[in-house]
Backbone:
């Protein structure tokens, strides 16, 4: 888009806030010590003459879709992991394209010529290790190949913070209480001892430290979903604000479910932090739902886990998945609604009538009073 920016230190950040952080940096900027999450004012002092570019989410979305299409010419198994990170399963492609390393280099040259991008490519037997390898070589090399069987040896000397999911409370425990600095040190701790601190997460953490990851590359789901999303004008880590926005998005999504005559069996909550790290949680239900008060009860159970890092949050979305028709069959001897459930349903129906007539901003709960009058973005994806 800006040929004159090439080979110059470029920083992607919003300059409108005094607390702006670096969202992304070009290889030239990274060579000057700039990293994602760094305060913008500190970055500008360190990289004199750096160009600051405002983030353009719409452009990034279009670019991501274009890149995914090009990658699908190399493999049918292409998965967007998170913003700017994509996994490609090249298993079984050697007869078409030759060695995996050669194919990876072809992908690099294709991205360079078609998108003017210079990706960092990690090659390994699984998504975990290949992702860490790609991060490890950013701005220093085109690709890095971790040979099969060398996963743990590659990971051992690396900073423990390179493991996905290490951040916030986990990072504090590992660094401050256990004095663990490297992935190798973490891998040496028995699972039963890790469980004392991390509970059910201990096994997954121990496996990751050893380079074990059995998760397959999953192409994006093509099932219908309803998605509500919100981008904060000023990044925040205030619990009441984050909970209020999450509840507001659930309200809006449930209204659309009822309008479409749908119910949901699965809700995915996703957040992106100021430093571009992400977190997500999935809510599942024994029976399909379309009432916000019922879904919000589950939200309370996962809220702390979703926002376990104290880093400010920039973006939040709620996706309603596994949709079903809400037409209910008449059942003999169906139990009557409790008084509370009946009242809640009556309240929701009254709110729906007001909002459908006057817009969602016309009325709201005290939980999200500060959002009344604002309109988050919403998407209906029916594939």
Residues:
């Amino acid at each position: 888009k800006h040929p004159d920016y090439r080979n110059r230190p470029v920083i992607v950040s919003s300059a409108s806030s005094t607390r702006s952080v670096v969202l992304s940096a070009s290889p030239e900027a990274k060579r000057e010590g700039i990293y994602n999450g760094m305060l913008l004012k500190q970055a500008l002092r360190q990289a004199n003459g750096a160009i600051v570019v405002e983030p353009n989410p719409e452009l990034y979305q279009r670019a991501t879709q274009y890149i995914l299409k090009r990658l699908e010419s190399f493999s049918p198994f292409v998965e967007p992991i998170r913003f700017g990170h994509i996994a490609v399963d090249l298993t079984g492609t050697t007869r078409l394209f030759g060695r995996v390393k050669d194919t990876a280099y072809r992908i690099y040259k294709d991205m360079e010529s078609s998108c003017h991008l210079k990706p960092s490519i990690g090659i390994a037997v699984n998504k975990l290790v290949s992702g860490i390898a790609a991060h490890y070589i950013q701005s220093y090399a085109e690709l890095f190949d971790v040979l099969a069987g060398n996963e743990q040896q590659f990971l051992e000397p690396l900073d423990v913070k390179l493991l996905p999911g290490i951040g916030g409370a986990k990072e504090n425990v590992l660094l401050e209480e256990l004095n663990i600095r490297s992935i190798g040190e973490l891998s040496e701790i028995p699972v039963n001892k890790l469980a004392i601190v991390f509970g059910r997460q201990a096994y997954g953490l121990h496996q990751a430290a050893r380079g074990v990851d059995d998760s397959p590359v999953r192409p994006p789901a093509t099932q219908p979903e309803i998605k509500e999303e919100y981008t904060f004008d000023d990044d925040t880590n205030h619990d009441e604000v984050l909970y209020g926005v999450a509840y507001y998005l659930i309200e809006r999504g449930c209204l659309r479910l009822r309008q479409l005559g749908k119910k949901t069996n699965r809700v995915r909550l996703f957040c992106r932090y100021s430093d571009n790290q992400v977190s997500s949680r999935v809510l599942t239900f024994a029976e399909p739902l379309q009432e916000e008060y019922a879904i919000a009860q589950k939200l309370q159970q996962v809220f702390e886990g979703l926002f376990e890092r104290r880093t400010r949050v920039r973006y939040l979305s709620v996706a309603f998945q596994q949709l079903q028709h809400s037409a209910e069959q008449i059942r003999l001897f169906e139990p009557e609604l409790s008084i509370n459930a009946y009242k809640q349903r009556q309240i929701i129906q009254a709110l729906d009538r007001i909002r459908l007539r006057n817009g969602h901003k016309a009325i709201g709960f005290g939980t999200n009073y500060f959002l009344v009058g604002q309109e988050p973005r919403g998407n209906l994806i029916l594939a």
Q: What stands out?
A: The first strand starts at residue 10 and ends at 12. Residues 225-381 form a domain with the Dna Ligase; domain 1 fold (CATH 3.30.1490.100). The mean pLDDT is 83. The longest helix spans residues 239-260.
